[in-house]
Every structure is written in C-alpha cells, then in structure tokens.
Design goal:
The protein is α+β, with helices and mostly antiparallel strands. It has two domains: 65 residues; 62 residues, N-terminal domain of TfIIb (Single Sheet). Helices cover 29% and strands 20% of the residues. The protein has five helices and six strands, in the order E-H-E-H-H-E-H-E-H-E-E. A three-stranded antiparallel sheet has the order 1-3-2. It has a three-stranded antiparallel sheet with strand order 4-5-6, with no helix packed on it. A hairpin with a 5-residue loop joins strand 5 and strand 6. The radius of gyration is 23 Å and the shape is elongated. It starts with 6 loop residues before the first strand and ends with a strand. This is DUF2007 domain-containing protein. It comes from Hymenobacter mellowenesis. It holds the Pfam family DUF2007. InterPro entries: DUF2007 (IPR018551), N-reg_PII-like_a/b (IPR011322).
C-alpha cells in the first residue's frame, strides 16, 4: 500500500529558473514542494543532463493536482499588443510587415548587422565599440529595415 504522505519525484528541469517558476506556481496553489540539484546545476550547467537537471518533488497525495497546475496553459488576458512594453523610441506598436517578404514576424531592437553611417562608423572606431541604431528585424528572411 502506498503512503499518501511519501515524497515523489514529479518533474525535471534543465534550467534552475524554470524549476523555480514551477515551484512558485505550486506553492501559490498551496502545494508543498521542494527542489534538488538546484545548486549543482546553477554552478555547473554542463552537468544538468548528467544529473537529471533540477528535480521537483511533491507529496504523493498532491501529485495529480500539481501536474495539472504545471501543464495548464493559461489563456492570455488580451490579444492586443502591450503598449507599455515598447521602448520609448520604438515606433507605433502596430506590428509592421517586412517590405521584402511581407512577414509580420518582426521585432524592434538593436541592429544585428553593421549599418554604419559616416559618423556612427567613426564613433565606433574611436570608442572601439559598435554604435548601432535600432531597426526592425524580420525573422523570416533576415531583412532589417526602419
């Protein structure tokens, strides 16, 4: 006969941050749990696959409820873009389309390619650090545009 108060292994995570997020979700639902191998994987991340990652344990009586909580994907409250998350110098939050391929899979951020003008190129040489502006980057075709 299985003891409902025994501790059982629930899930393994290769990153300590993901394991701590899962632990926090369970503790928020009043399910007692704990992690093992967290310090080892934090200090030596290459050992994570060898040790089985950061392991999450719960009581046997809470295992089914914990799995349900961890594997439940919450529905996002809104499908509108979050205007507050855009940088102050970012353009309109409406998702633009790539002029080359028409994809909407684009993001605003620092340019990944050397897009130097005369002054930014000279300043980059003097500072020994690349000075790049922000541009849209298309993840479909790799095009960068303003």
């Amino acid at each position: 006969m299985e003891n409902p108060d025994s501790v059982v292994f629930l899930e393994s995570f290769y990153e300590p941050m993901a394991a701590n997020l899962a632990r926090t979700r369970l503790e928020a639902a009043d399910i007692p749990c704990f992690l093992s191998n967290e310090n080892l994987v934090s200090l030596l991340p290459l050992y994570s696959p060898i040790t089985g990652g950061v392991r999450l344990y719960v009581m046997r009586r809470d295992a089914e409820k914990a799995l349900e909580i961890l594997h439940h994907e919450p529905v996002p409250p809104s499908t509108e873009p979050d205007v507050a998350s855009f940088a102050a110098d970012a353009p309109d939050p409406v998702t633009p389309r790539c002029p080359r391929c028409g994809s909407s899979n684009v993001a605003w951020g620092p340019a990944t390619r050397n897009t130097y003008g005369l002054w930014s190129g000279l300043l980059s040489v003097l500072l020994r650090y690349p000075v790049r502006g922000n541009r849209f980057h298309c993840f479909h075709c790799g095009n960068e545009f303003k």
